[in-house]
Write a structure and sequence with these properties.
By secondary structure, this protein is α/β, with parallel strands linked by helices. It contains 11 helices and 13 strands. The protein has an 8-stranded parallel β-barrel, surrounded by 8 helices.
Length: 353
């Protein structure tokens, strides 16, 4: 197997807890807290760091990326951008600037979002997202742009700073609906998935490989999942249970409903996975769905001892996963545990696209 890229998660969107559903002022999103997570991940040897983005929650991913970039010596950044919120020429300039600050280590996670306060149906929203990806690639090419799409019609010079780019900035993107899959097959470089059973993951990889081939393209694959790793499986399961020990179900439902993507196809699939799990919350060996009781989006964790977590990740790698975006609660503490117990055993390195 080729080396895999292992990324951690910086909790920019008010998503850090000791006990899920119980906000802790010491873990609230702030420059200092999220900086500390980033520096912990850098010191631990992670290859990349996801900077998530939410309109209402936490702090801004682009502004944070600009602040943290000079403090990182090795690790890449995976900048999440909600494409419904940002004008492509402006974002292209920001991306090129951040990439220069990082010495060519920027990657971008495209989120197919609505404009805040507005709702667009699935098909046109993903068409806009596809145009966004195509337009960003043109703007970042360093050449003049003449783009005539359904949503964007632009004829202008590319920003001067884009001429400093030495390579194509990879676009990571995910979505399970038919419209999302088609947009991904046509426009992204790395297709991201949320947790699912092994059989479901294989089905998605096979489907997306075939879709991309129809457009003369190939995709790389990534997997976003939480982790709970301890020296023994019993300790890991106890740590997972402890996360939920103070959760009120009504609070959990309110947290899930707050997310802008709470009605998406992918979120519904996470709910189905949780509903189909056993009474202990495990959908299959070492895949625990309890996380999803208190958050929208990625709703399951790999739980186990270091060898079990490593085996699970390698099983995903054998199915085509080349990038992992991991997280755990609290994020800095779990990053340190994973970095000590699992990361040295993984054949990993930055993903080249």
């Amino acid at each position: 197997m080729t080396p895999c890229e292992v990324s951690w998660f910086s909790a920019l969107c008010d998503d850090d807890y000791e006990f899920l559903g119980k906000p802790d002022p010491n873990l609230a999103s702030s420059w200092e807290h999220c900086r500390n997570i980033a520096l912990t991940a850098e010191a631990g040897g992670f290859d990349n760091l996801l900077l998530p983005s939410g309109y209402a929650l936490g702090i801004d991913s682009v502004a944070f990326g600009a602040a943290i970039a000079p403090l990182l010596k090795r690790m890449k950044l995976l900048l999440a951008v909600r494409c419904g919120e940002m004008w492509p020429p402006q974002l292209a300039r920001q991306i090129a600037t951040l990439d220069q600050m990082l010495g060519g280590r920027l990657t971008v996670n495209i989120i197919s979002s609505d404009l805040p306060g507005e709702t667009l149906a699935s098909a046109p929203r993903y068409q806009r997202t596809l145009e966004y990806m195509e337009l960003l690639n043109q703007l970042l090419s360093g050449q003049a742009v003449d783009y005539q799409g359904e949503f964007y019609k632009l004829k202008l010079d590319a920003p001067r700073i884009s001429k400093t780019l030495k390579r194509r900035v990879p676009l990571y993107f995910g979505g399970l609906s038919e419209d999302a899959r088609e947009a991904a097959a046509k426009g992204c470089d790395v297709y991201l998935m949320w947790p699912d059973t092994m059989s479901a993951v294989k089905e998605i990889v096979d489907d997306m490989t075939a879709r991309a081939a129809k457009h003369g393209r190939t995709l790389r694959f990534g997997y976003r999942v939480h982790v709970v790793v301890r020296e023994t499986e019993a300790e890991a399961r106890d740590a997972a249970s402890r996360l939920l020990s103070k959760l009120d179900d009504a609070e959990g439902e309110a947290i899930r409903a707050k997310s802008l993507d709470s009605a998406s196809y992918g979120v519904r699939r996470q709910a189905e996975l949780r509903a189909g799990a056993g009474h202990d919350g495990y959908a299959e060996d070492n895949l625990w769905t309890g996380i999803g009781r208190a958050r929208s989006g990625c709703g399951a964790a790999i739980v186990g001892d270091p060898d079990q977590v490593l085996a699970k990740l390698n099983a995903y790698r054998a199915m085509g996963m080349e990038a992992f975006i991991l997280s755990g609660y609290p994020h800095a503490a779990e990053a340190d545990l994973f970095a000590r117990h699992v990361l040295p055993k993984l054949d990993h390195g930055p993903l080249s696209v």
